[in-house]
Amino acid sequence: MQNVINALRVLEEVAVRQPAGVGELARGLGLPKSTVQRSLRTLHEAGWIRPAGGAVTRWQVTSKALQVGRRAELGLRDVALPVMEELRQRTGETIHLMVPEGDAVVLIERLETDKPLRIVLPLGIRLPLHASANGKAVLAHLDRPIDELPAYTGTTITDPELLRAELAEVRARGYADNRGEWRSDIAAVAAAVLGPDGPVASLSISTPASRMPDDLRPEYGKLVTQAARTLTESLPS
Fold this sequence. Notes:
By secondary structure, this protein is α+β, with helices and mostly antiparallel strands. It has seven helices and eight strands, in the order αααββαβββααβββα. A hairpin with a 2-residue loop joins strand 7 (about 185-195) and strand 8. Helix 1 (about 1-15) crosses helix 3. One of its GO terms (molecular function) is DNA-binding transcription factor activity.
């Protein structure tokens, strides 16, 4: 049983760090290199990971792992759509559903506003954890080091200490916000959908920056927090 648990932990760590080498995985997991190497060999033989190339072998997940994740996402979308539709009706704005994947969140569903001025993000787009409302909502509930923080706009938080302070506020109030930190024309508030082992998704209300003044953020924040809580309670245990 412990071998199975170790292999699953290694698979999860590869997904987070890919492409990742044995030494990096061993340090991240606190496991001996020999244990990690055995797990990598098993996962490779089963088709879950493959070499990423280079002089030193580094590993990344295969489409098999991604296909399993996509099937899980289909179930999540089915449960989320009624919650998202109610949130769209209450706000009149675009609603996004994203899932964590490595160092980003990935858009898997959206319900768009009927207003002519809108921000349209393609399904499958990846947003950085530290520079998006969905990303910060997820990151606030993850235990991982915060170091390199690239800037995307003039308002992106690039100081690790400032980001840690903001994530503490996210946990306290229940939602994250984005003030043009990924793209200067986008504003959003988002809340995490939590499973037994941490965040499984995030919901957001996304608008052009001009349609989310400071006095509206707490109201939208409360609505998206309630919606994320409803979705959390609706997921199979």
